[in-house]
Amino acid sequence: MMDFLGRVAYELRENHGKEMDRQIVVLPSRRAGLYLSRFLARLSDKPQWSPMMLTVNELFHSFTDLRPADTETLIFELYSIYKQRFTGEMSFDDFWSWGEVIIRDFNDIDLYLANAEKLYTNISDLKEIDLKLGGLTDEQTEIIRGFWTSFNPGSFEDSNARSKFQSVWQKLAPLYNDFIASMKKRGQAGEGMLCREVAEKAMKNSLHVKEGFTWHIVGLNALNNCEKVLFKYLESKGQAKFYW
Fold first, then answer.
1. 109-147 pLDDT, tens per residue?
2. Which of 12, 15, 182, 204 counts the highest number of beta carbons within 10 A?
């Protein structure tokens, strides 16, 4: 990794040495940015501008007015909407661990630009996923498989529990829609929701990108769909370079 960052630093200096203030480097972590800055400093014997260093999350934050919300805020808001959608009482303490699972699922749905209506369709058995959801991508299907592996109603001996689970499953799509609408109204978002807003603007060609800047995408792997969309959009504008 150090050798890789050293070569990236050399490329930046050789190709953009006189306009470093207009370069934005996107890295896997802030630590990587620290090392890249050190390599750049070693290549020059005089003071110079340094490019802006961003993590991937910070890159997405720079393209939206939505504010990142912490886990506690997300679960409190989800619980509030849950109480409106579901009959029967559930204390916040009992809801917490279940809410964490749902927040993670919603985050995956957004990061992979999945359709919540399709994901949460009415299926009564894990085997029905392939039959009923043939139009989904592999990543989207895996979201469902992961959920049903953890909460497979087929493992419930009590038919009452199975019916209750299926009732909850069917309400997750409207719960997701209400949750997203409520968070946007607050001007806040979970990480996946925030990334999805940026990616969808890029897909509509309505994402504003500052002219005269170049984004250098450095050392990233295992990209989710939102990242792929944004990076391709920047590339289409002639404002992205990739370092693998």
1. 999 999 888 878 755 555 565 556 556 667 766 766 666
2. 12
